[in-house]
Amino acid sequence: MTTTNSLIATNTNTDKIVRVLYENLVKGKVRVGDRLPSIRTLGKTFNVQRETVRRAMGSLANEGFLEMRPGSGTYVKAIPGSQDKVMEILLWMPRSNQYNPDVFKIFEHKPGQEYHFTVVSSIESLQRRRISDYAGIIAAVPTHDELSLIKSVVGDLTPIVSLSRSYIDVPVPAVLEDNFNTAYDLTKWLLRKGHKRIAFFGDNCERTESFVLTRFHGWKTAIEEAGLDVSLQPVHWITLPEDKTMFGAMLPVFEKPDFDAIFCSMGVFLDEALRHIVLRGMDMVERRAVACLDTNCGNAGVACAVHDLQHLIDNALEVLRRPVDPMGIETIRVPMRLYFPQ
What we know:
6-stranded parallel β-sheet; 3 domains
């Protein structure tokens, strides 16, 4: 967002409320002639002193956007020009080097596009930004600690949307893949192929354990609630050795397999599982006995669920277009794209 320096000189509470009110003007949430909520009401909404709200409204009035009428209230006088309608969004992506370069094409600004992304990869980089220049933050696959740090830097009045991480308990809106229904659909496909002893493969390393546990329990719940006749055991939690070679870690699992199908929580497990299957001459792929919840591999004979990143981003942007509610928390579950081999 672009405004004059008088509107965004600091990151005080006054400045943050100015940004919120300004964004509501830009996004068309109010029209010329509309009366804004009272100073008392806005003070309670933002949990700040009334004088702070009064200063914020005064700043916008000085710019010609609001008119403060004594004894009547504050009214919208003008809407910022069209040159200010591009939403500037901060995209938190600290592990960007691990993402497929094609992913970044989604975040490139295109002619006529109503938003523009700026990637930040560290708290230091975030602290150097003037937060009031941005309509909000989309945090891509954040950890609990990362999201807590982001909130500590930008405060409660800056909209934050968590993207694609389902175990977070930091109170912000979240847009997540619908792992629950996706896991159910993949398992139903395995059952239709005649498989009932399905092994779950997941990683219990420190960074991803909670995430994979969430996926496992979502899968388990989906199966139990649907009353499907399937054995969920054994569950193979793979702890990677120090040399990080998953092949060695998974080797014992395939020596005497007590399952007739596998359900992988992440694409990396699918790659390694397929390697073992091929080496041992197992016909699990031919028998359509392999499914994976999180992969873009599209291997022939494997049922896959693929991230629809553009759909996730579109839903996150829709959240940021709304008027800011500091106490508003919601979860939007976006379907994953499913591919089933014949």
